[in-house]
Amino acid sequence: MIARTRTFTWLFATAALLFAFGAQAQAGQAPDALVKTVSTDVLDSVKADKSIQSGDLKKVIALVDQKVMPYVDFQRMTSSAVGRYWRQATPEQQKRLQDEFKLLLVRTYSGALSQVNQEQTIELKPMRSQPADTEVVVRTEIRGKGDPIQLDYRLAKAGDSWKIYDVNVMGVWLVENYRNSFAQEIGANGIDGLIGKLAERNKSAAAKG
Amino acid sequence: MIGRFAPSRVPGALTGGLLALALVGCATIDAARGGPGQRLDPWENWNRKVFNFNTDVDNLVLKPVATVYTDVMPQFVRRSVANFYNNFSDAWSAINNILQGKLQAGMEDVTRVSTNTLFGLFGVLDVASEMGLDRHYEDFGQTMGRYGIGAGAYMVLPILGPSTVRDAVALPVDRLATPPAFFDSTGTQVGLTILQVINTRSGLLGATRVLDDIALDKYTFVRDAYLQRRRSLVFDGNEPETPQPPEPAASEPAGGAAGTAAPSASAPPASGPGAAGSAPAR
Q1: Cβ(B226)–Cβ(A12) under 8 Å?
Q2: Per-residue pLDDT tens for B13-27?
Q3: Looking at the complex, does the CB of residue B216 fall below 8 Å from at least one CB of chain A?
Q4: Do B228 and A180 touch (CB under 8 A)?
Q5: Which candidate among A105, A130, B236, B253 keeps its CA 20 to 30 Å from the CA of B18?
Q6: Sheet harboring A135-143: ordered strands across?
Q7: Beta strand pairing status for B161-164 and A172-173?
């Protein structure tokens, strides 16, 4: 039971660092180096800012916009979660989907950032990839007190820089994990139904504080 | 997949009911292969009912009790309780690592358990982690997976929560390695089980709080996360990439717009879901 649920202890408490990466990364940098630079930068920012740790959503959004979004292909994230319906959405719907999905993920993220503690560091695990690859998986571990937390990133090459399009927390690819939920909602209520549902989640969570 | 599971190898502790369930599962899974959406969850209707039941039980009993436990008990007490149970789980991990031929991980777990048992007051202190010895969690479901037994259909067990046919078959075996199995007195067994439940649930309080905020449909979110997580565990985090199916695993949209998308439509190839999905497994 619980042994089973126990192995489950993962995702949410640690979905922290979902977007854990930061600003000084440069164009042309190797994907693993990029992940390392950016995630260390974000981790340091969080460690230094008590209000982020206590879940100040405005601050978290600012942090994400400044340090994370430049390295994320958010359109791909959203389109991948929406699946084949993405191409049926109007540009206006696509934009709203991206906005609401982003807010949803940032809220997840802000809840998780409160779990960050001073001892945590990020370690890269060996990467298996060829120089010619245009899509890679970078594997990292957050080490600190307790068991290490597995945190992996999927990156795709765009020009001479790399962008992240999915994050794996303890074995669960987050964007992939929304695919069935999104399809289910679109199946029942269409694309506008999904937008409405996302907005409703974001609003009710905001109301709870 | 379950067909490969030879009943003669099933430990005697298994209840006939579970076995029957597994066999039914075999038939039903094959029957359900027709629709992509139903592939992993042919019993969704039933599973949802159990899931709702579990949620009610959780709201009424488990969550409140775990919350009080967290509020009342000092952190070091809760830490010690968790360590004590983890020590048993580490011993079971060691056995499963060895069963899977992962000798180094197995020996490290053996070292963890002996260290914590001898120098950590029978596991109450996690001295091994302080020394930098990581645990390598493995249970019997993972061992079965390692030998090629597929997960089978998703199932939600009453009270026990998310599982699959394979993991449900493994569950009674796993239970043999938990503290209650080592005591004869019923009272002790019940006590240890209750404490274990409270310990586990209190560790998940933060997670379930977040779940309420981020899941569109909790059932689907938990199911998909569970299946992904278990698959990842079986492959120790190095699972082969699965090509994404072009169609999502859910019922067809009512709108009838599906299938009308022209391949030439707006999304650029590099960022289109089709492009992401059709990438060959590497």
Answers
A1: no
A2: 334 444 444 444 444
A3: yes
A4: no
A5: B236
A6: A121-124, A135-143, A149-158, A161-169, A172-173
A7: unpaired
Which residues from B are below 8 Å from A107, CB to CB?
213-214
A92, with CB counted inside 10 A (0-12, 13-18, 19+), is exposed
Looking at the complex, does the CB of residue B254 fall below 8 Å from at least one CB of chain A? Answer: yes
- Report which of B75, B81, B87, B73 is spatially closest to residue B127, judged by C-alpha positions: B87
The predicted-structure confidence for A142-159, as pLDDT tens digits, reads as follows: 887 777 888 899 999 988
Measured distance CA(B226)–CA(A166) in Å, rounded: 18
| Cβ-defined contact of A1 to B157 (cutoff 8 Å) | yes
Q: How far apart are CA B226 and CA B57, in angstroms?
A: 20
Query: Which residue do the tokens 């060829």 mark?
Result: A130
Taking CA atoms, B207 is separated from A134, B45, B159, in Å, by: 34, 25, 18
User: In a mutagenesis test of the A interface, which of B228, B238, B252 is the best target, namely the one with the most A β-carbons within 10 Å?
Assistant: B228
Structure tokens at A65: 């916009």
- Asked if residue A14 has pLDDT above 60, the reply is no
- Residues in B closer than 8 angstroms to A11, CB to CB, are 207, 225, 229
Band of residue A27 on the pLDDT scale cut at 50, 70, 90 = low
Contact list, A9 vs chain B (CB under 8 Å): 203-204, 207
A201 alpha carbon, distance to own chain's centre: 17
Amino acid identity at B64: P
Q: How far is B98 from chain A (nearest CA, A)?
A: 19
- At B216, which amino acid appears? L
Tell me if residue B278 falls in helix, strand or coil.
Answer: helix
Q: Rounded distance, CA A71 to CA A69, Å? A: 5
Q: Report the gap between the CA of A125 and the closest CA in chain B (Å).
A: 11
